[in-house]
């Protein structure tokens, strides 16, 4: 395993996974006012993986610097403090009220990566608010770095990384040199809960604030959302008396046969 590493981990603030989502009155987006937010679950897994790597390397007398990064409004600092409480060493907040699309986030992360020069950048495979599954791949393309996506297992060696990743019908094991991009899947780990002492310590850890202007990045939207609608309400089921009646209903009413 590498003896000295720097890891950047992306942490997006999203509507909490347990909240029942509603479309806003204008039909332009999901309602976010007065709604509980938390760290994107896949990014939480990514943060846990970065900390596990840190613990393993430092146990072998190495050194790892874990930097949590979030792009978003001032309240995104809460998400970064969560990452710091979990065990990240410091945080960078790119503060903006703009609605950032995946390409814009990838460009902002690229600027941070060029500034910090990490060995690994870890992102969740997707965010649960937009489900785009694009930022990690776009960042790899912008940096011209190798990427290992949908990771379910990660093993590090000197200047290399072996990743087991989930694919249709099974798993695939790949090996890549460092620096590299890693995106995390659900089965990679179970994120830890931040203890109260670590939450208190997180308040004293460094959190650097940057703006889009500081990074000199164009975050202009390339996509326009025309309308957001809720899915149709689910209809109640019907009990049928026989297979023939079931087939008849599937054929003539549901028209799926």
TrEMBL record:
<keyword id="KW-0249">Electron transport</keyword>
<dbReference type="Pfam" id="PF01012">
    <property type="entry name" value="ETF"/>
</dbReference>
<comment type="function">
    <text>The electron transfer flavoprotein serves as a specific electron acceptor for several dehydrogenases, including five acyl-CoA dehydrogenases, glutaryl-CoA and sarcosine dehydrogenase. It transfers the electrons to the main mitochondrial respiratory chain via ETF-ubiquinone oxidoreductase (ETF dehydrogenase).</text>
</comment>
<dbReference type="InterPro" id="IPR033948">
    <property type="entry name" value="ETF_beta_N"/>
</dbReference>
<comment type="subunit">
    <text>Heterodimer of an alpha and a beta subunit.</text>
</comment>
<dbReference type="GO" id="GO:0009055">
    <property type="term" value="F:electron transfer activity"/>
</dbReference>
<dbReference type="GO" id="GO:0005759">
    <property type="term" value="C:mitochondrial matrix"/>
</dbReference>
<keyword id="KW-0496">Mitochondrion</keyword>
<protein>
    <recommendedName>
        <fullName>Probable electron transfer flavoprotein subunit beta</fullName>
    </recommendedName>
</protein>
<comment type="similarity">
    <text>Belongs to the ETF beta-subunit/FixA family.</text>
</comment>
<dbReference type="InterPro" id="IPR014730">
    <property type="entry name" value="ETF_a/b_N"/>
</dbReference>
<dbReference type="GO" id="GO:0033539">
    <property type="term" value="P:fatty acid beta-oxidation using acyl-CoA dehydrogenase"/>
</dbReference>
<dbReference type="InterPro" id="IPR000049">
    <property type="entry name" value="ET-Flavoprotein_bsu_CS"/>
</dbReference>
<dbReference type="InterPro" id="IPR014729">
    <property type="entry name" value="Rossmann-like_a/b/a_fold"/>
</dbReference>
<keyword id="KW-0813">Transport</keyword>
<dbReference type="GO" id="GO:0009063">
    <property type="term" value="P:amino acid catabolic process"/>
</dbReference>
<dbReference type="InterPro" id="IPR012255">
    <property type="entry name" value="ETF_b"/>
</dbReference>
<feature type="domain" description="Electron transfer flavoprotein alpha/beta-subunit N-terminal">
    <location>
        <begin position="27"/>
        <end position="219"/>
    </location>
</feature>
């Amino acid at each position: 395993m590498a003896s000295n590493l720097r890891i950047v981990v992306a942490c997006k603030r999203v509507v909490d996974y347990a909240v029942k989502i509603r479309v806003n009155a204008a039909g332009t987006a999901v309602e976010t006012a007065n709604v509980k937010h938390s760290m994107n679950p896949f990014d939480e897994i990514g943060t846990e993986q970065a900390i596990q790597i840190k613990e393993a390397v430092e146990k072998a007398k190495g050194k790892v610097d874990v930097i949590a990064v979030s792009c978003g409004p001032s309240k995104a600092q809460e998400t970064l403090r969560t990452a710091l409480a979990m065990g990240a060493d410091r945080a960078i907040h790119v503060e903006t009220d703009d609605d950032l699309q995946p390409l814009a986030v990838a460009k902002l992360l690229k600027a941070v990566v060029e500034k910090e020069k990490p060995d690994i950048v870890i992102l969740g495979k997707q965010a649960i608010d937009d489900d785009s599954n694009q930022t990690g791949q776009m960042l790899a393309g912008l940096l011209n770095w190798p990427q290992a996506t949908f990771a379910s297992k990660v093993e590090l060696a000197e200047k290399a990384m072996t990743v087991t990743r989930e694919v249709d019908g099974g798993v695939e094991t790949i090996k890549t040199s460092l620096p590299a991009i890693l995106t995390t899947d659900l089965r990679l780990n179970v994120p830890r809960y931040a203890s109260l002492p670590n939450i208190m310590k997180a308040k004293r850890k460094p959190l650097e604030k940057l703006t889009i202007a500081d990074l000199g990045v164009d975050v202009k939207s390339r996509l326009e959302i025309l309308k957001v609608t809720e899915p149709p309400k689910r209809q109640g089921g019907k009990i049928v008396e026989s297979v023939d009646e079931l087939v008849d209903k599937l054929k003539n009413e549901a028209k799926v046969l």
